[in-house]
Design goal:
Helices cover 48% and strands 8% of the residues. It is an alpha/beta fold. The chain folds into two domains: 3-224, HUPs (Rossmann fold), CATH 3.40.50; 248-413, Hypothetical protein af1432 (Orthogonal Bundle), CATH 1.10.3210. The chain binds fe (ii) ion (2 copies). One fe (ii) ion is lined by residues 298-299, 302, 311-312, 337-338, 355.
Length: 414
């Protein structure tokens, strides 16, 4: 059976209860397996959005943490250029080999849909779910839907939801005027806005919602319209995109989500790899939280990857897109954990060897490699690669040349 995946785009500037209610309704009514929130990147005219992508991404992460079926993807944020809905859908189709996609948007977006970039192709790649919005007549929307279906075909449906008069614009205005936003957004997001002094000093009444309606939460197709206009927050700071805070809660949530994604057996192996990586990192003076994340997620794409040889690459993609990992060092360590590579970093070496020696591994020679790993990590990797290459050769299996190159590289440096 195909996995049913909802995609919910928007600027989420900031995310609020209205977004979460729509997502939850879509999840229940269409019996979706999961919903991925996809915050838009900063458009060419950055004035259109009030908080940097880093803040918006983090707030969405916080808002969805408590729901195991919700996750966040930075696919649009990490691409600096125009991001079209079509490209986003194509990327998700590559990532999920056997899935049916539900693109969740607002009824207001329906009126602009014919002018989106390659509408017909978009409608072939997903079912379109338009959530009702206050002030928009369902009758009018239905009329438009019929016109679109005649023109382009496709499946477009209206999702009737409780009318919540909450908008990101309203929240920004309230914050700028010092009015409480309690219960309009998750408490963690409210605290985050206060702590980081977001949306302050913006003046009182900003008309950008009418100008930028397409980049508002339920109208994700920002790349298909001209850049939005609006004022820049005086308190706005250019903050580089970073990882979320890696505290206990972050790791607990990461584990919960991973367990659902990969199943018990692989989860046990991942926990073992994480703990081994953490110990190795403390011995070799490497960043321990990076080692924990990479160890935990190194096989996160293994369950959905048909070709075992490619599971490291797939895991790196899923760590980035589904688990929100941005750090290149972590992503590379995951990507090369099966073969190693020339010029691999210390973190890369730690993840490579932690995967091979974690406590659930029981193969001939593992004890020797285990001991070596804590005294001479390069020698341990050489031993592990040599035994893998021999095993592959003996069984006439396909040998990955990256492993041979890594072996030669490490032997040269020895
Ligand atoms: Fe693996
Ligand atoms: Fe593994």
């Amino acid at each position: 059976m195909k996995r049913k995946v909802g995609i919910m785009g928007g600027s989420f500037d900031p995310i609020h209860i209205g977004h979460l209610v729509v997502a939850n309704e879509a999840l229940n009514i269409y019996k979706l397996d999961e919903i991925i929130f996809v915050p838009t990147g900063n458009p060419p005219h950055k004035e259109g959005l009030k908080a940097d992508s880093f803040h918006r991404l983090l707030m969405v992460n916080m808002a969805v943490l408590s729901n195991n079926k919700f996750s966040v993807s930075d696919i649009e944020i990490k691409n600096p250029g125009k991001s079209y809905t079509l490209n986003t859908l194509i990327e998700f189709h590559k990532l999920y080999e056997n899935a049916e996609f539900y693109f969740i948007t607002g009824t207001d977006a329906i009126f602009n849909l014919p002018s989106w970039h390659r509408t017909e192709e978009i409608l072939k790649l997903c079912r379109f779910i338009a959530a009702s919005r206050p002030g928009i007549s369902i009758e009018e929307v239905n009329k438009k839907i019929n016109e679109i279906k005649e023109m382009f075909g496709g499946k477009i449906e209206i999702l009737q939801i409780p009318m919540l008069q909450i908008s990101s614009t309203d929240i920004r205005e309230r914050v700028s005027m010092g009015i409480s936003v309690k219960y309009l957004l998750p408490e963690s997001v409210e605290q985050y806005i206060i702590k980081n002094e977001l949306y302050r000093g913006m003046g009182t009444h900003l008309p950008e919602e009418s100008l930028c309606s397409k980049s508002e939460g339920m109208s994700p197709n920002k790349g298909d319209t001209p850049p939005c206009l609006g004022r820049v927050s005086a308190g706005r700071r250019n903050v580089p995109v970073r990882e979320p805070m890696r505290n206990e809660m972050y790791f607990e949530e990461l584990k919960k989500k991973l367990e659902i994604e990969i199943g018990q057996k692989l989860f046990r192996h991942s926990i073992g790899t994480m703990e081994e990586a953490e110990k190795l990192a403390s011995v070799y003076g490497c960043d321990m939280s990076k080692a924990k994340i990479a160890g935990l997620l190194h096989d996160c794409g293994k369950g959905t990857c048909k070709d075992n040889l490619k599971h490291a690459k797939k895991s790196a993609e899923i760590a980035r897109l589904k688990f929100g990992v941005k750090d290149k060092d972590i992503i590379n360590a995951i990507m090369y954990h099966t073969t190693g590579r020339v010029n691999m970093t210390l973190l890369g070496k730690i993840i490579f060897i932690a995967d091979k020696i974690e406590p659930n591994r029981h193969y001939e020679g593992v004890e020797e490699i285990r001991k070596e790993a804590y005294t001479n990590i390069d020698a341990a990797i050489i031993k592990s690669l040599e035994s893998t290459i021999e095993y592959v050769k003996n069984r006439n299996m396909v040998l990955d040349m990256e492993s041979v190159n890594t072996l030669n590289y490490l032997k040269e440096g020895k």
